[in-house]
């Protein structure tokens, strides 16, 4: 059970504006792998945590990679870890070239206090280069917020995690119940999946977002009809219409997804708040 997920760190992909919040800046490549930032998980009743397949559950993603790209993970999925911190290294091999990234996971003991579930808000996702999107597990990607002592809670989601969809709006229903049965939730929300488009697909080819990184306000070179700002887990944070700027002074530092719409055309950018 993932307790918290902090901000994410990304390498630069050439169709996005994306700069790390740390001091490391990575060069462009034909195939990039993206890791989450460090996060914590809660150990089971034996004080253990089973390492997941972080590429399969969409916490680690690829950008601009060939279909034959091979992803490896260390430690391997299924490895049992005890309390403490360990590093996960992800490597992609494509066309004879490799790229890698890493992140730390802290395995912590169950916290005391009553179990509580907080249903996700509406979520935003983008398709891959083939026009597909794998619906994530909203219990493990941080969208479902779980606090207190919930034990090994049960979780159901419809459509199930891993379901492949194309661009569109989907209704997601989920339910969760704590092990002793003292707390439960049943709710639904919308998942909007958009196509990933580059700047040439936008009617305003000279359209820019500045400054990027930003700390107080993001400006647009042209007024846009709709602007949506979401976290990297897909949670929609802010939406506005007919604007040429967005106030970001209240946001936590990190990388966010910005969707801009004019008529039937849209543009997805990744921006950083520092």
TrEMBL record:
Secretion signal, residue range per the UniProt entry: 1-27
Residue ranges of domain Secretion system C-terminal sorting in the record: 209-273
InterPro entries to which the protein is assigned, alphabetical: Secre_tail (IPR026444)
Membrane spanning residue stretches: none
Organism superkingdom: Bacteria
Keywords: Signal
NCBIfam families, alphabetized: Por_Secre_tail (TIGR04183)
Protein's UniProt name: Secretion system C-terminal sorting domain-containing protein
Annotated source species: Patiriisocius marinistellae
């Amino acid at each position: 059970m993932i307790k918290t997920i902090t901000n994410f760190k990304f390498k630069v992909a050439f169709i996005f504006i994306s700069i790390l919040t740390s001091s490391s800046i990575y060069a462009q490549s034909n195939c990039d792998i993206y890791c989450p930032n460090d996060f914590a998980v809660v150990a089971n009743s034996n004080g253990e945590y089973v390492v997941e397949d972080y590429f399969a559950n969409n916490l680690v993603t690829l950008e601009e990679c060939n279909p034959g790209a091979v992803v490896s993970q260390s430690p391997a999925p299924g490895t049992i870890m005890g309390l403490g911190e360990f590093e996960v290294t992800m490597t992609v091999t494509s066309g004879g070239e490799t790229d890698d990234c890493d992140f730390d996971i802290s395995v912590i003991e169950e916290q005391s206090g009553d179990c509580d579930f907080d249903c996700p808000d509406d979520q935003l996702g983008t398709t891959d280069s083939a026009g597909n999107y794998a619906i994530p597990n909203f219990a493990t990607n941080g969208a479902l917020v779980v606090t207190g002592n919930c034990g090994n809670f049960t979780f159901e989601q419809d459509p199930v995690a891993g379901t492949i969809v194309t661009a569109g709006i989907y209704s997601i229903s989920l339910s969760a119940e704590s092990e002793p049965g003292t707390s439960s939730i049943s709710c639904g929300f919308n998942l909007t999946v958009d196509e990933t488009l580059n700047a040439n697909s936008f009617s305003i080819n000279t359209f820019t977002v500045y400054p990027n990184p930003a700390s107080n306000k993001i400006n647009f070179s042209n007024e846009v009809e709709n602007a949506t700002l979401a976290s990297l887990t897909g949670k929609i944070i802010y939406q506005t219409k007919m604007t040429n700027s967005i106030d970001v002074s209240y946001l936590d530092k990190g990388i966010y997804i910005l969707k801009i719409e004019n008529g039937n055309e849209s543009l997805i950018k990744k921006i950083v708040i520092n």
